[in-house]
Amino acid sequence: MIKQYQIDGMTCGGCVSSVKQNLEEHPMISSVDVKLDPPHASISMDMPVPISILQSVVGKKYTITERGLLTVIEPPTKEIKEILPEKSFTTYKPLLLIVAFIAGVSLLSQYPFDAFSGMIWMRHFMAGFFIVFSFFKLLNLSGFASSYSMYDIIAAKWNSWGYIYPFVELGLGIMFLINIVPFYTNVATILILGVSTIGVVQSNLQKREIKCACLGDVFNLPMSTVTIVEDVSMVLMSIAMLVLG
């Protein structure tokens, strides 16, 4: 399908080139034709892309509004609600279950708890978290990279980071599991997740309706404070292991 959009804020050929390039990088957009007079774009897409996502793609400098459908190649098969579901307990149930399973296994690894160590529990939890979450991201690496670039401040400027990040997570998980160079492992976790948290917080403050990429492209989770809690908790555990370990 081809849809028409008005784009306010474009004033020169450089603006046209920038908007066109940004839109063409989105995986669900097949082609883009951007004009300055009047400022508009004809976007060919495989299925409807929410206007909030298009706005995040073109950037704050420009304002994009829908003008209507030009031609329809095939009827849309999904509604916007299917792309970005309502924020509820049911929506986040897969994420909460996975975290609960990792926490439980990390606890049972010290059975029969004769000399239970909170530090060992945190290390095992971090290992399980990174390994399991990297697994889901690697199931659809390109899908994760696309979603991640919507809010991560590094992936937004360097697209390759979205393809590298799951392998970094996997590496950190293995390092926590075998307890190799714990100081550098914790420092790397604080830096990497700390930077990632900045983009998550910004997206929540701006109330952007975008997809959370924490479980890759497998589950359809909207960005929310749940993601902030997830990242901040991991950073705090790494800080605790550095200070108390």
Describe this structure in words.
The chain has helices at 13-24, 51-58, 80-83, 89-108, 118-139, 141-148, 160-178, 182-205, 225-244; strands spanning 2-8, 29-35, 40-45, 63-71, 211-212, 221-222. The protein starts with a strand and ends with a helix. It has a four-stranded antiparallel β-sheet. The protein has a two-stranded antiparallel ribbon with strand order 5-6. The longest helix is centred in the C-terminal third of the chain and has 24 residues, at 182-205. It is built from nine helices and six strands, in the order βαββαβααααααββα. The chain folds into two domains: 2-71, Alpha-Beta Plaits, CATH 3.30.70; 84-244, no CATH class. 28% of the residues are buried. The chain is of the alpha+beta class.
